[in-house]
Amino acid sequence: MKKMLILSSLAALLAGCSNAGEDNADAEQKEKAGTAAQEENQDQNEKKEEQKEQKDQKAAGSKEEEVTYKVNEANWTIQSEESEGDEVLLTFDDAPDGNAVKIAETLAENKVPAIFFVNGMFLKDEEGRNALKRINDMGFAIGNHTTTHASLPDLSEEEQLEELKETDELVKEITGEKPAFFRAPFGQNTSFSDEYVKNNGMIKMNWTYGYDFETEYQNAEALTDITLNTELLTDGANILMHDREWTKEALGPIIEGFNEKGYSFIDPQYIEKE
Ligand SMILES: [Zn+2]
After folding, report:
1. DSSP string, 38-79
2. Separation of CA 35 and ligand 1 centre (Å)
3. How far is the CA of 60 from the centre of ligand 1 (A)?
4. How many whole angstroms separate alpha carbon 174 and alpha carbon 121?
5. CA 117 to ligand 1 center in whole angstroms
6. Along the 274 residues of the chain, how does pLDDT read in single tens digits?
7. Is residue 105 part of a domain?
8. Could you tell me the residue range of the domain that residue 101 belongs to?
9. Does residue 18 lie in a domain region?
10. Angle value at C-alpha 205, between 56 and 127, nearest 5 degrees
């Protein structure tokens, strides 16, 4: 039985850690917006669930598990031959670093799935371990983003192995399962990391677009606007975000904006391995 049928998603790059953007979002307005977004997602997810049930009935006895998406490594979009309507995948990198639990709560309130790409360096104290545990317990997908966020091409194979393996083991120790996804820091995959990912049955993932690491988008309003209105937004967009304060603040309006545009959210649970 799947832990969470509806929820799941993705993540991003290391970015500047300081200069937390302040926004003046009105709490009441945010709450109203959140409620509307939640209702819409519930509707869309109910529809999806119906579709899936129908599909399951058709497929009954033929396949144990329905897998509906693939990562297109040519442009890192997430593609499906079966799903209808426009969809995006949300991913959050460099977690858990202080904002990830709140980000996960906002996603869960809106029934939006996502992937959290974690760094082992954040999983070595009680606070980080508890944060990952909460995120995992809420049903979100977890990805390995290396231990120290090092640039893999600068490391020996032995050092790369340590970066990948240690984080895998920390995640397994905390959640009971190894991460299903891998995203290299700065998107710098190597032949060694490619081999590791393949040998460990993980799904390799870069991203389509992301803005929260650029100085001009480190406030909730600018980040919301660019995320929803960039010309890079397409069906299957694999959206890179980070464990950052301004991202946490922008998330409610971003979800609401995607709903208004008619987008729904891809559940990473249904992304197929190569
Ligand atoms: Zn990163």
Report:
1. HHHHHHHHHHHHHHHHHHHHHHTTT-SS---BEEETTTTEEE
2. 31
3. 40
4. 14
5. 8
6. 333 333 333 333 433 333 333 344 344 444 444 455 555 566 665 555 555 444 444 433 334 446 589 999 999 999 998 888 899 999 999 999 999 999 999 999 999 999 999 999 999 999 999 999 999 999 999 999 999 999 999 999 999 999 999 999 999 999 999 999 999 999 999 999 999 999 999 999 999 999 999 999 999 999 999 999 999 999 999 999 999 999 999 999 999 999 999 999 999 999 998 6
7. yes
8. 66-82+94-205+221-230+250-260+268-274
9. no
10. 95
Domain assignment present for 47: no
Within a domain: 187: yes
Strand boundaries in 146-248, DSSP class E: 181-182, 203-204, 209-210, 237-242
3-state secondary structure of 267: coil
Distance 195 CA to ligand 1 centre (A): 20
Q: No. of H helices and E strands in the chain?
A: 7, 10
Q: Ligand 1 centre and the CA of 273: distance in Å?
A: 22
194 alpha carbon – ligand 1 mean position (Å): 17
Q: Please name the amino acid found at residue 44.
A: Q
Q: Which CATH number fits the domain that encloses residue 226? A: 3.20.20.370
Ligand 1 centroid, distance to 48 Cα (angstroms): 31
Tell me how far the alpha carbon of residue 150 lies from the centroid of ligand 1, in angstroms. Answer: 9
Q: How far apart are CA 122 and CA 94, in angstroms?
A: 9
Number of structural domains in the chain: 1
